């Protein structure tokens, strides 16, 4: 068993590994979970949200689409803004800019979304100060 405050790293590299990963997380007694940005996780976000709910593990995700799918909270770059920026980059390249000469662009819009329905199901009270800072509160 782990000691309080210890970080547990669990990996899943395919859809079939998601459920066993959550079982291991629960077996290890995790108090909370941070899901990192990964195309596999984004594609299977509904399954991840359902697994987190079934094990009652408070989970924060990298994109608001997880929170709108029922996840507790998300904090990360705006997917819509990233797609818009990719379009701007594409237009520059199509207009003759050399890709190697274009600057690296970091996300400029970071979204915080909190799902109060999920918080209630987990028995969590979200502080009003945090709710006031959220870009989206899902009720």
Q: Can you offer a commentary on this structure?
A:
By secondary structure, the chain is of the alpha/beta class. It has a domain at 15-77 and 110-138: Rossmann fold. The chain has seven helices and five strands. Strand 2, helix 4 and strand 3 (73-77) form a beta-alpha-beta unit. The longest helix is centred in the middle third of the chain and has 16 residues, at 79-94. The mean pLDDT is 94.
Features:
139 residues; alpha/beta; Rossmann fold; five-stranded mixed sheet; 5 strands
Helix and strand topology:
Blueprint: H1 18-27, E1 33-34, H2 39-43, H3 45-54, E2 59-61, H4 64-68, E3 73-77, H5 79-94, E4 110-115, H6 116-121, H7 128-133, E5 136-138
């Amino acid at each position: 068993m782990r000691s309080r405050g210890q970080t547990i790293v669990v990996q899943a590299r395919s859809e079939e590994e998601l459920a066993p990963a959550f079982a291991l997380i629960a077996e290890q007694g995790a108090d909370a979970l941070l899901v990192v940005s990964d195309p596999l996780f984004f594609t299977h976000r509904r399954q991840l949200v359902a697994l987190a709910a079934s094990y009652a593990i408070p989970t924060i995700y990298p994109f608001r689409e997880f929170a709108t799918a029922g996840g507790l909270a998300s904090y990360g770059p705006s997917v819509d803004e990233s797609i818009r920026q990719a379009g701007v980059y594409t237009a520059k390249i199509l207009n003759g800019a050399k890709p190697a000469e274009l600057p690296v662009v970091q996300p400029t819009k970071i979204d915080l979304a909190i799902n109060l329905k999920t918080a209630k199901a987990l028995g969590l009270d979200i502080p009003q100060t945090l709710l006031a800072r959220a870009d989206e509160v899902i009720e």
